[in-house]
Amino acid sequence: MSRTVSIRSSLLRNLCVMIVVTGVAILATTFLGSRRAVRGMSESIVGRTLETVEARLDGFFQGPAQQLRVTAEHAALGLLDLTEEERALIESPDERVDRLRYRRNRALAPIIDTWPQISSLMLADSRGREHMLLRDNGGWRNRLTRLDEWGGEVRWLEWKDDDATPRDRRERLDYDPRRRPWFEGAVAARDAGGTAPIHWTDPYPFFTTKEPGITVSSTFEAGDGLDRVVGFDLLLKDISEFTRALRVGSRGIVGVLTEDRRLIGLPRLPRFDDPAARASAYLKLPEDLGLTLINDTAEASREYRDQDAATVPFESGGERWWCSVTTYSLSSERRLRIAIIVPEADLLGNLWMQRWIMLGIVAIVLVVGIGRAVLLSRRFSAPIEALVAESDRMRGGDLEPGPPVESPVLEVRRLAQAHDQMREGLKAKLRLEKIERDLDLARDIQRGLLPKGPPAVPGFEIAGWNQAADQTGGDYFDWLSLPDGRTIVTLADVTGHGIGPALIVAVCRAYMRAAAGISGRPLSAAVSSVNDLLYADTPPERFVTAVVGVIDPAEGSMSMVSAGHGPLYFYEVQTGAMHKWEGDVPPLGVVDGMEFPPPREIRFAPGDVLVLTTDGFFEWPNPAGEQFGTSRLEAFVRDHHALAPEQFIEKLYEIVLGHADGTRQDDDLTAVVIRRM
User: Regarding predicted confidence, which is higher, 272 or 383?
Assistant: First the structure.
């Protein structure tokens, strides 16, 4: 047998000279003229980005500023004087709802609804009286301050949009609106200019919500000699959402800073994908956050301070960048800085002309190389042609082995071996694809068994949701309307997940519907019969935890039995009480002939909510191994009970997903939420 020869060593001697010539030519061509092209492209990209950022900032700041002027004019005309109304609210509690809603809807709330960046608005005077309206988690908070009448006591009115009556409370608070920067700044600006100009504060954490923001304020006259100020709080996180979403090339970033270089518009960096990281970064200096790139940008732009918006190069982190730092004026007294930073590597990637030149050079080299390759192909083409013929046969569907391919070339022999391995891999892939198709069919069938929409139960809102961990799952929920107007609701969890539990889910659903749908049959008896059937039909290692309830809309009540399923949460709105129940009996399919106790009777008052979930929610761990836990689930129910059931489930999944922080979903997720309207 002839000596084995490496194709690399055979070709290396012939191609080395051409590779060196090609490399030198490419480097020379790339160097010539690239600097000027990079500068032109950087100025073009930075200019377009700057226009986009300035337009967005104009919309963010100038719209509320114009609204402030209109509001100040209305206030000067007495249209927003709430003194008489607030006194009437104290003296006449029965008229509180109508008066409050009238004033909120007609005067103040539409301003916040129109401008999402406005989180709250304030009306205050030099006697220490203030009316503050704040949009908070889908509801409203109204703080009334009367330093001249109540001293250090403030009054809070809090309500949701659909509340019938606002909550009214008082508290002692070390707060004086006259000492806030928006009040002092507006008065000082008026005194300095003789009119009532718009005043912008420095960015700062807001007193009530502690969120970072900036306040725009202005004085107005009411004819009584008092200093009166109206102000809007604007949240800075909206600026960061824009700057983080803005793409400048593939790795370019945009940041917005104050004049003293504190960050208010965070750049698009992975570290700021976490909301907690963003919250801690606002109003910090770049060097305090370890943002060396932005710090180097500031140093590079100092040499061109007299050329606003100049695009300049600099080095950072061993890489060359281009930047522009531009001033954005809110007013003569308040300015922001827009920093746009682009890596030179992104710009070089767009030099199409240079690529065409290099392509021409490479083509010339290839023509010369082909002459040498023709001589070599005669020696190497026969076994490769045989492999091509084998590939054509495989493409036609014939995966049986053909004649062996012999060659003295090491790489060709390895290619033949890889060819045989590919043939076996294709066989395995076809088998795997068949299994995948069968699993997809099973998933579609299982999803088809779930309800298509919520049941029509008068006086109740009901929503259900399921997400399997695999293509098929072991959880399900169901409801069935009975002829007498009642509705059966079921949530169950089969041990494990995958095709086996999915089959048990289908069996359990059928049993439950058949047993519970018999007219006049008690709930405990129906569930007991399902238990006996599952005990007879399922293997010993499989069982089902389930909770089954019958809703009676006429009575506003629900009878419920839990077989090993918990915890179940029931929140009473009027008392604020949280009920937590575990299973009444062991899971279904464990004990034959198990006796079930009478169902638990639940009385729903308007706003009361019952939450049923499987353990996939509270057992989902984060990267540190800490599960979400039932304590967090209970706190979530207490804090979000007022949400509609569908929104409640969406919010719960969002919170649990945030806790998981990228960990894989290892268990099925199913939830049913029942709320009395």
Answer: 272
pLDDT digits (tens, 9 = 90+) for 228-243: 999 999 998 888 888 9
pLDDT given at position 101: 45
Place 158 in a pLDDT band, splitting at 50, 70 and 90.
confident
How many Cα atoms sit within 13 Å of 225 on the Cβ side? 0
Q: What is the pLDDT of residues 371-409, one digit of tens each?
A: 665 666 566 666 666 666 667 676 766 767 767 766 666
Say whether both 602 and 652 belong to one domain.
Answer: yes
* One domain for residues 244 and 230: no
Report, in angstroms and rounded to the nearest whole number, the Rg of the chain calculated over CA atoms: 36
Residues in CB range of 253: below 8 A, 6 or more apart: 243, 267, 268, 269, 293, 340, 341
What is the C-alpha separation between 29 and 23, in angstroms, rounded? 10
Kindly state whether residues 643 and 661 are assigned to the same domain.
Answer: yes
DSSP designation for 326 = E
Q: Is the peptide bond before 567 cis (omega within 30 degrees of 0)?
A: yes
User: How many domains is the chain partitioned into structurally?
Assistant: 3
What is the residue-averaged pLDDT of the chain? 82
Do residues 207 and 315 share a domain?
no
* φ, ψ of residue 580 in degrees (nearest 5): -125, 120
The DSSP H or E segment spanning 245 is helix 237-245
Residues 226 and 292 in one domain: no
Query: How many whole angstroms separate alpha carbon 297 and alpha carbon 303?
Result: 11
Residue 211 near residue 205 (C-beta atoms within 8 A): yes
According to the model, what pLDDT value does residue 399 have? 65
Rounded distance, CA 143 to CA 185, Å? 21
Please determine, for residue 86, whether its predicted confidence score (pLDDT) is greater than 70. no
Q: Are residues 333 and 480 in the same domain?
A: no
Is 636 within the bounds of a domain? yes
Query: Nearest-CA neighbor of 586 among 487, 469, 495?
Result: 495
Domain boundary among 215, 235, 255: 235
The answer to whether the beta carbons of residues 406 and 417 sit under 8 Å apart is no
Q: Please check whether residue 83 lies inside any domain of the structure.
A: yes
Q: Is the residue at 610 inside a domain?
A: yes
Q: Are strands 568-571 and 578-581 parallel, antiparallel or unpaired?
A: antiparallel
- The reply to whether 60 and 104 lie within a common domain is yes
With cut-offs at 50, 70 and 90, classify the pLDDT of residue 354.
Answer: low
Name the band, by pLDDT with cuts 50, 70 and 90, for residue 530.
very high
Encoded tokens for 652: 């719960």
Smallest CA-to-CA distance from 671 within 654, 653, 659 is with 653
Q: Which residue has the tokens 């003295």?
A: 408
Collapsing DSSP states into helix, strand and coil, what is residue 632? helix
Q: Where are the alpha helices (DSSP H) in 464-610?
A: 499-516, 523-537
Which domain-ending residue is among 348, 374, 393? 348
In a domain, 27, yes or no: no
Q: What percent of the chain has pLDDT over 70?
A: 75
Are residues 116 and 170 both part of a single domain? Answer: yes
pTM above 0.85, yes or no: no
Dihedral pair phi/psi, residue 556, rounded to 5° = 65, 40
Q: What is the CATH number of the domain that holds 306?
A: 3.30.450.20
- For residue 552, what pLDDT is reported? 95
Nearest to 639 by CA among 169, 119, 160, 142: 160
User: Is residue 603 left, alpha or beta, with left meaning phi > 0 and alpha meaning psi from -120 to 50?
Assistant: beta
The β-bridge partners of 479 are 489
Cα–Cα distance for residue pair 119/106, rounded to 1 Å: 18
The 3-state secondary structure of 443-461 reads: HHHHHHHCCCCCCCCCCEE
**Domain range holding 217?**
56-235
